[in-house]
Amino acid sequence: MMPGEATPRCWSCGTMGAVQFCSACGKVQPPVPVDYFVFFGFPRKLNLDTAALEKEFYALSRRLHPDVFGQADDRERAWSLEQSSMLNDAYRTLKDPIKRTEYLLRLEGIELEEQSKQATEKARATGELKKQVVPPDLLEEVFELNMHLEELRVQKKMGEDDPALLEEIGKAKLSLEEKYDALLNELKAEWNKWDKAVDGGTEDNGDEADRRRILDQMVDVLNRRNYIRNLVRDVNEAME
Amino acid sequence: MATDTIVGIDLGTTNSLVAYMQGDSPVVIPGEDGLNLVPSVVALTLDENEKNQIVVGNAARRYLIETPERAVYSVKRLMGRGAEDIQDELKLFPFKLADDLQEGEVLRIKIGERTYTPPEISALVLRQLKRNAERFFGVPVTQAVITVPAYFNDAQRQATKDAGRIAGLNVLRLVNEPTAASLAYGLDKKKNGIIVVYDLGGGTFDISILKLHDGIFEVIATNGNTHLGGDDIDNLLIAIALDDIRGDLGLDLRRNGEAMARIRKAVIEAKIALSSEPAVKLDIDLPGGKKYQREISLDGFEQMIQPIIDRTVGPCKQALKDAGLKPEQIDEVVLVGGSTRIPKVRWLVQDLFGRAPHTDLNPDEVVALGAAVQAHILGGGSEITQDMLLLDVTPLSLGIEVAGGVTDKIILRNSTVPASATQYYTTQVDGQTNVAIHVLQGERELARDCRSLARFDLKGVPPMTAGMARIEVKFLIDANGILRVSAREQRSGQEAEIDVQPSYGLTDEQVENMLLESYDYAEEDFRQRQVIEARREADTILTALAKGKKNEAWREITNDERRNVETLERALIAVKDGDDYHAIRAGIDALNEATTRLAELMMDTAVSTALKGKAMDGADLEEGPQSGHRVAKADFK
Known about the structure:
The complex is a heterodimer. By secondary structure, chain A is mostly helical. Chain A contains 8 helices and no strands. By secondary structure, chain B is an alpha+beta fold. Chain B has 18 helices and 27 strands. The relative contact order of chain B is 0.10. The chains are: A mainly alpha, B alpha+beta.
């Protein structure tokens, strides 16, 4: 659902400017392709008041959910179904910090590698390099961890048990998890930069490149985060 | 208006119920036998002319023993499933599949010499509930909310909806059973907080975690097992009994339908008794004058069922994890389903969530009551329900098969419904006009490990160079948890035609045909039934009056009163064998009215037999729903 900024006109009374319902007569409207931020009437910023989001979600649910249209005509029932599915999709995306960031990146024209299989397939088809490489600061740690994991698998096959090795892996896992959590803070620092650019920026004063840098930085943080997540998953599987 | 009453139906594995909102509170509508529970049992009997007759509910139960090959139970286990999924069921339940079943065809079950699909059998149960409601209201009932296990997949939901349609019901909504229960629970509590609903019924297990917030019932996570319930306990006890019988008496009864049904009945009674007794004795008559006797202690019983009830632990933990909650964050635990009467189950729940569960609700009725609340909301609601809104989730992830047989998940489990996802497809070959999509449901990585929902064939894609077409396919899970798919080729703006082949389930056309068969008779049926029931009621009051005339109260009323009663008596006798429902009804009402004082005097003179109509059946008077009955009638006259 990419942004299309056409201002809709109420099908029932003709008033302009409604997204979910007519501001004048209150009738539910056919869905228009607006992005999730516009849907909730929020600026396209990443620091988001989740309590306000939840409140708005409940308020809109009370007006859009198909249950409220039990006695309405077919057309309004169909619109309520589409509007409330969009509401739920939007809420689900925006309330989660990672999903929200990924969504914004996509709105800004960036397809995340990890995010979509289509992108992966496309990358394969066109021979583009995937960005998914071992983050440099992790190289040494990952190398060591992979050796330990290999050792553990061999031991498991032999039916042996080495508490020292398990402890070693456990420590590595803990360190990874700490890094994983720290990355969220790193991401939030980028959010602040982005939000500031949105607040202060006008399109033509040359900060387009600035924005691009912030977005790229976010992609980098997310990629590192995904990498660690996959690694932790591998560790959990090996230790099972 | 009575004609608009939307009923709430709990279509259970073992028992089914129908309820409606009476003023501010939901009540269960009893059947003609005065009982709230309608066993989900269908039997085909032969009448005196050797014609097949369908019997449903309590009346059908005895045929499970008398003619087991002509009766079925627990059909809910087969809803939306294929022959290959039910091999385990076939070992444990006396289901007989049709001999001429073709591959890929919807299951058909043999009852006597006929065969029925599971939705048709469920439709017979629904039709009984519909009739009970119609008898209660005195007008046709055409709209319903039906509950399903939260963990039901798309095919199982669709099959339930089909059953409703076949029964002549417009199914306005499928509601998840634990969620419905929370509605009934939350109606008078009006609290905010996190509640857990643990629902262990006859054949299904659900766990749902909800957040209650100013009337919004938001499901945060749900999990379960659609093949786990009291049935499994019964089957275990049966297996043990069969083993004993083979060992001690040298009898193999597995093929003896009647003996099997007898054993089943006995172990169910034992199981129920063990919820309040420290031990029970099984004493079952077997063929050849033999007997099976065994004592089961509560301890022994609890050890036997431990592995079964332990299977509910995994889903509970997963739901907590998905909700991102710890047990100590749960405010209340609500028990639903007959199997939660087992003390061991209650202990297990208490251990899991660290608090004593609520036991003040009737676990058999709470789901139907909640369905009635939801029906009321859909009908426009009233002051008591105006702030109430259910936000439910889809229990299973929706995926599509991509290259390499991998599942690409596009809507994750526990997403609030309605939910949607849009995918883009293109063509592989020049001039290609069809695109095939395989839709799956489940959590596994590989397509073959997930449940196949349907194969969609997008047709009418305008011929273009390979890779040029851009087909937007929108997958939408509606508020019933049922998938809808629409597609559009974006370059031409052409709506692509979608040919759906459900992997399990009836096509619209099949449902339509099943519907038409019963529809032909529906109106006529209803009128005839009304007449028959009114006639029966007339007989009841006339018999009561004949008795009343022998009572000394008869002499205490005035001559005028006596004359009036006798005139009306003759009038009722004159119309009661005719086909005019309204005339019979009016005759009954008039006579009822005229005999009020007589009835009162009879009461006063300490004669316990009440005179008026239904009140003849003394036992009925004590049941709550009967008094509800009379109030409801008064509303609609």
